[in-house]
Design goal:
Blueprint lengths: L5 H9 L20 H20 L4 E4 L10 E5 L2 E8 L13 H10 L3 E5 L5 H11 L3 E5 L6 H12 L7
Parallel strand pairs: 3-4, 4-5
Antiparallel strand pairs: 1-2, 2-3
Helix pairs in contact: 3-4
Length: 167
Amino acid sequence: MIDTRVHRWLMPLLGRRRRGRRAPESFRPRGTSSKVSRLAARYDGEVDAALERLWPKARIYHDREFTRDRADFLLVVRGRGVMIETKVKSDRGLFRGSTLPPLLDRLQRDGRRLVVLLNQGDPTPARELVAAKLGDKARVIVWSGPADDEALQEAVESLLQQASRHV
């Protein structure tokens, strides 16, 4: 028997739109539709190109999965590793580093080195937070493009010269 009710075959095509029944924010899939997410994807690509340009013989590992306790990149130069975390702000205000504590806690346990790259803004509060957790094993710099390559290279090389128990 053929179902002649239009809404039964039309609703799956159009999707159910019931008022008042929305998925909680924590269950919604994370997309890249926001302005900051698009900026972050573009910024990560620019950082990757800069790392390849500054250290052509280095190994660069990308963390494709979004987590708060792992850095976005691992740069291995001359057998020593430096974690690179990228942060994107849509305005030029203060960067307080409120998303950094899970990563800092993990790196503090592991004894790894970290460079936090910020696209714009004032990183002073984040520098204080990072220094309190990791001391001289971390740097926070503003890197907005090839013009800032020297600051990036200086930060990574200073960390690579430190002795550490881990790569």
